[in-house]
Amino acid sequence: MPNLIAPLVTALLLAVSKPALACSIFPEDPARIFKDSDSVVLAEPLEISPGAEEIERPKENYSYQQTVTWQVIKVWKGNFTIGETFATTSWISTSDPCSGWNVVRDHQPQILRSVADSSFQLYYAAPVAWASPQLDALKEDHNGQALDDDT
Description:
The chain has about 150 residues and is of the alpha+beta class. It has one domain (about 25-140): CATH 2.40.50. The chain has five helices and five strands; from the N terminus they run H-H-H-E-H-E-E-E-E-H. The protein has helices spanning about 1-15, 20, 30-35, 50-55, 130-140; strands at about 40-50, 65-75, 85-95, 110-115, 120. It has a five-stranded antiparallel β-sheet, covered by helices on one side. A hairpin with a 6-residue loop joins strand 4 and strand 5. It is elongated. Mean pLDDT is about 75; it is low at about 5-20 and about 145-150. Keywords: Signal.
């Protein structure tokens, strides 16, 4: 019985914790991302500033702005072309427990999305290998027509 107490307490704390709910790491369904986004692209980071080595240094009470220059590798939706570059900027702060999700730590390709002319956001919880085939199928099925609300 004592072995079950710790997991139950942890689950209860996570269930009632607002930051835990706000920082959900569960990915949205690729169909929802495709439908709700103006642009969905696969892009590779060319420049990351500050880089992972500076981000990982332990500091207390700090915040910084990370700028990443991306190069488009694949376009599922939007007016981008392969090879085009764009930049994203994220604020990371120790006072905001959710801000770390937007940190880019390596030069691996990532899926990014934009909504209503806002800046791009990482589709951070979706591994490329998982979401890419689903986005490929959605692009094929879509053929320029609006997706149903059921998607």
